[in-house]
Structures are given as C-alpha cells and as structure tokens.
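Table 4 source record.
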Amino acid sequence: MSDKKNVEHNHDKHHHHYHSLLPEEPELRVKAIETLLLNKGIINSDTVNELIDTYENKIGPRNGAKVVAKAWVDPEYKKRLLKNATRAIEELSYTGRQGEHMVVVENTPEVHNVVVCTLCSCYPWPVLGIPPTWYKSDEYRSRTVREPRKVLQEFGLELDLNTQIKVWDSTSEMRYLVLPMRPVGTEYLSENELESLVTRNSMIGTGLPEMPK
C-alpha cells in the first residue's frame, strides 16, 4: 500500500472512530461535544448557561414580543400578520432559518391556542429564540395533544371551561406563533411598554402576557 493510501486509510479510520464516539441523537451529540470542551477548559459552564438563557428567554423572545405589541396597536399590521405571517414578520426584519413559513393564530375569549411539535422540536427561532427544554420533552409533545387543558393547568394557566383549546402541531414546513390577547387596562401604554408584557410562554400558548404594574 502506498504512503498516500496509508494516509487516506488512517484518516478514514480516525474519522470513523471519532464519529463512533458520539451518540446518534443530535441533542446528545451536542451535549457530548459540550462535555469535551468543558473538560478541556475551552469553555466555561457558567458562560454556556448564561448564553443559553440569553437566547432562550431574552434576545429571541423579544423579537416575537415586538411582533405582538405592534399587532396590538396597529390594526392594519394585525390583519397582514394573520393573513400572511411570514411576510408581516419580515417587515420587522425577523427572517431566517426556522422562520420561513410562519402562521400566527389569535387567542380570543372563546378560543385559546397552544403550540407543540409532536415529531421533534420545530420552533420559530427568528421570533422566539431557541426552544426551552420542556418544549422538546417527550412528555410535553405527547400530553399536550391528549390532554391540553391539564397540561396548561400544570403551567399555572387556568382557563374557563367554556374556552375551546386548539392545539397546533408545528412541522419543518410550518411553524406557529400565538398572538395572545392584549391585557385589559393597557390602553395608555406605548408599543414599547407593551412589549415588556409579552412573555415567551404567551406566544407558545402555555402562558399569558403579564399584567401592567
């Protein structure tokens, strides 16, 4: 065997060996890589946790909050958002992967919407950031379809028994965002002030916007 073939053979062998050390599931693979980087001192666990929290709860969901607040104060924008969510969201410059095909569903006194992904964890990243851990769990993905009212109660959301609950199953082709009802007593608030009331969970349907202080 020539030196060139030896090099190629060894490269393939090491390449295969490297990948064989990592689990097949993407989430487990990421965790395995994170553990390796932590053990080598390349990254710091506190920094990783802070970064995840920032994108999960702050930066990402704030984009969605701007969309919701604008829909609350601008009737024409709300019409465009409900008719063609992808295009209306693009008006605010929120685009990218995981947000190419968006549908916005509106909560009303009669209907409450909640979003799930029963197959994996499809999620509208451009407007909500990275999905929370519970959204990706088998329990949430299966139970939300079977017993949505009970699941919402466990999130602390008690709905009137006359309120219909609609469950929307996100896919790789379609992702949903809930347009929550505007809290009462917020007529005097500006659009920026309204943004601070919009929570991530209210845009998934597992919560409601905060009340003004």
